[in-house]
Amino acid sequence: MTFRLCYLLAAWICILFIPGLSEGGKLLVVPMDGSHWLSMKQLVLKLKERGHEVVVLIPEVSWQMGKGQSYTVKTYPVDYTLEDLDNSFEEFLSVHLSGQPFPLNALALYNISKHTFRIFFVQCKNLFSSTEIMQYLNQSGFDALLTDPIALCGATVANYLSIPYVFFMRGFPCNLHYEASKCPSPLSYVPRLFTFNSDNMTFFQRVENALIALLELVYCNAFYTDGLKFSSEILQREVSLVDMLNGASIWLLRYDFVFEYVRPVMPNMVFIGGVNCAQSKPLSKIYRTKVSEIVNDMGKMCEE
Ligand SMILES: *[C@@H]1O[C@H](CO)[C@@H](O)[C@H](O)[C@H]1NC(C)=O
Ligand SMILES: *[C@@H]1O[C@H](CO)[C@@H](O)[C@H](O)[C@H]1NC(C)=O
Ligand SMILES: *[C@@H]1O[C@H](CO)[C@@H](O)[C@H](O)[C@H]1NC(C)=O
């Protein structure tokens, strides 16, 4: 299953390197820490195995993104410690598990996500302030960039270097991945995040869905304010969230149909299936609560 998935992914990435298929391409990877990286790493290893030159940009402080095996790793210094990172994740997790009713849960999640994301925006600033790395990137002539788009840093780097970029992702808040690429997403049938509705909604659920959709614009623009301000400074032009997302050449969507609803997507969006099943390990004791139950269930679904 893992092998098949990676094979498919690698095939898609290879398309980018035509006509360089035989000699291999030069790929820059701007990953996201945590579970995001666990899935992406499988793809990166496979691409390396297939003869592409792969360079992964990694902050000096991170959870999982240690030294590479076969691929090249470039690290850059950051202004936060591992303790800062751990604390922000603990807070993030505790809000998710607090079980508050709607709309308190949405407000609390918004607040904590904004707080947690500040670290990732700082990380991106740190990357751009490393003259050594920036010079290296400038001179390396990468063919393409692969990134998890959630923190926008990869898209900013790709725009800065003027190279095509590929998203490898699970999802965005605010329906952004469909909104940005103008996929039809009718309010009567596509339930918004936090409503917990299905695609078969009653009249009042549709009203609720419509109200939430109105708030989403405000919500996500506020969420990404700091990140976008920084991207605009770097690129020396005013960029919007939609600009940054729309620039992607291919979207590899790590979705599983069991969590999704039927809807049309753009031709450059590819469903590659699977949540983070490539590597499974027992959770550490502190998280063996609700989270481990959820993860176990997801693991079972992956195996089936
Ligand atoms: C928002 O999050 C911060 C950081 O965790 C916290 O200090 C603050 O109390 C939160 N505010 C609200 C209104 O929940
Ligand atoms: C990158 O290269 C361009 C010219 O090729 C130069 O103008 C620019 O200053 C360089 N940037 C960095 C960060 O080295
Ligand atoms: C939608 O839900 C209603 C009420 O629960 C039910 O009668 C109807 O069959 C459902 N429609 C579909 C397409 O599932």
Can you describe this structure?
The protein is of the alpha/beta class and 304 residues long. It has one domain: Glycogen Phosphorylase B (Rossmann fold, 3-Layer(aba) Sandwich), CATH 3.40.50.2000. It has helices at residues 2-15, 35-49, 82-96, 104-129, 131-140, 153-161, 176-180, 203-223, 225-235, 241-246, 290-303; strands at 26-30, 53-59, 72-76, 144-147, 165-169, 250-253, 269-271. It has a seven-stranded parallel sheet, with helices on both faces. Helix 6 (153-161) links the parallel strand 4 and strand 5 (165-169). Helix 6 (153-161) packs parallel to helix 9. The relative contact order is 0.13. The model is unreliable at 1-9 and 17-21 (pLDDT under 50). The structure holds 2-acetamido-2-deoxy-beta-D-glucopyranose (3 copies).
Describe the global form: globular
Bound molecules: 2-acetamido-2-deoxy-beta-D-glucopyranose
What is the count of distinct domains? 1
Which structural class do you get from the secondary structure elements?
A: alpha/beta
Judging by the overall fold, what is the CATH architecture? Answer: 3-Layer(aba) Sandwich
Please report the distance between the alpha carbons of the first and last residues: 10 Å
Average pLDDT level: 83
